[in-house]
UniProtKB/TrEMBL annotation:
This is Aminoglycoside phosphotransferase domain-containing protein. InterPro entries: Aminoglycoside_PTrfase, Kinase-like_dom_sf. It comes from the Bacteria. It comes from Dactylosporangium darangshiense. Residues 134-337 form the Aminoglycoside phosphotransferase domain.
Length: 391
């Protein structure tokens, strides 16, 4: 549950005031469909949520949250508010005044160009520092407008590649503008949050097939801007992310100092580098009894060791549940690299996986404006402490 305050601006960016606080059931800060609906139902106004301004707790979710929203139409009675908008170089385009409307215009134009008609309705589903998402109800079924910030725009390249080599294994990329805007087809089924171990074997099979296909296309993907974490690059990135915390987290310095040797041992176990999803938990797999699984949200994808994905997929499982899953995954990789030792690589990378997460979160913080740091600032030290406990 959240208590939401909306600070409203008009199309010129002039601050009009704030709506009285109201409650929405979903606690997740990026989810704004119920926020938009609540503003309409309670106060009779149509708004587009632009960005987070303030939260009363240092990390997600729940609590009292204040967003900036753009009003469409006449202003109701509003409470005075002390807020002066100011530009910021790291603000996502969709978080600017007029940004959501510009993204929607682009998507509707692409629909017309593709012969898909127009949208009967447009519903804002999510907005935060990593994406904005709208559901477009078209004549032929729903489509999705996803707008990523510039530092994640390579997802479009990954989706274009997936659409060419494995149609249906990921959202269909209908259009992209190179800046982060994407028009996506709809995937049937349900997100796999909390899936039991038995359902995750099909997820392993799907991802391994994609990663096997990527082996020959790594130069192509690197040339299209997909993050490269092969060789010594990941170790260097970890050193940078960990440096501010070396004096605060006991044992981190020793773990970092031993990283070069650890990564050399990983390389010696013979797993080939490939396309790594980077956030391969069951919630990013969409499936049902009637449709094959498909993988969502490739914004964190990189080139590197595939063991990181099986470690993420095993999250939340007991050891006796995870071990058969890892064994199945390892058997698939030994077909590709018969002399490899995938299980040994997994064990060596267990403490490295949360360090990789720290790198990713530190990159988010570096690329977003300070008002949205609460989404991620606690994640970096939390991940590094987890790495030490595993190392």
């Amino acid at each position: 549950m959240r208590t939401v305050t909306l600070v409203l601006v008009d199309a010129s960016g002039t601050v009009l005031g704030a709506l009285p606080p109201f409650t929405v059931e979903l606690p997740w800060w990026p989810e704004v469909e119920d926020v938009v609906a609540g503003a309409r139902e309670r106060f009779g106004v149509d708004v587009a949520v632009l960005r987070l301004l303030h939260a009363d707790r240092p990390h997600p979710h729940g609590g009292a949250v204040t967003y900036l929203a753009q009003l469409d139409g006449a202003a109701p009675a509003l409470e005075p508010v002390e807020f002066e908008p100011a530009p910021h170089p790291r603000r996502a385009p969709y978080a600017e005044v007029g940004g959501p409307a510009a993204s929607i215009r682009w998507a509707l134009g692409e629909m017309r160009a593709l012969g898909l008609g127009t949208a009967k309705s447009v519903v804002q589903r999510k907005t935060w520092n990593l994406s904005a998402l709208w559901r477009l109800e078209a004549t032929g079924g729903p489509l999705w407008l996803k707008h990523l910030p510039p530092f994640l725009r390579a997802e479009s390249e990954v989706l274009a590649w997936l659409g060419a080599v494995a149609p249906g294994a990921a959202p269909r990329l209908l259009a992209a503008d190179g800046t982060g805007r994407q028009l996506l087809g709809h995937l049937h089924g349900d997100d796999g949050f909390g899936s039991p171990a038995a359902d995750r074997f099909a997820m392993v099979d799907l991802l391994h097939g994609l990663q096997r296909r990527a082996l020959d296309d790594l130069p192509l993907l690197a040339g299209r801007g997909v993050q490269d974490r092969r060789g010594d690059r990941l170790r260097q990135q970890i050193v940078v992310a960990a440096e501010p915390w070396l004096g605060e987290i006991f044992g981190l310095d020793a773990l970092v100092a031993g990283l070069a040797d650890r990564m050399a041992r990983v390389a010696g176990h013979g797993l080939p580098d490939t396309l790594v999803h980077g956030d391969f938990h069951p919630g990013n797999v969409r499936f049902s009894a009637s449709v094959p699984p498909a993988v969502l949200d490739w914004g964190d994808a990189f080139l590197g060791n595939p063991a990181f994905d099986i470690l993420e997929l095993c999250g939340g499982l007991e050891p006796h549940e995870a071990e058969p899953l890892v064994a199945h995954w390892a058997a698939l990789w030994r077909r590709i690299a018969p002399r490899s030792e995938p299980e040994a690589a997994v064990e060596l990378l267990r403490p490295v996986a949360p360090m990789l997460s720290a790198v990713i979160y530190a990159g988010f913080v570096h690329n977003i404006e300070p008002s949205e740091w609460p989404y991620h600032t606690e994640d970096v030290p939390t991940c590094l402490r987890s790495a030490v406990s595993l190392g």
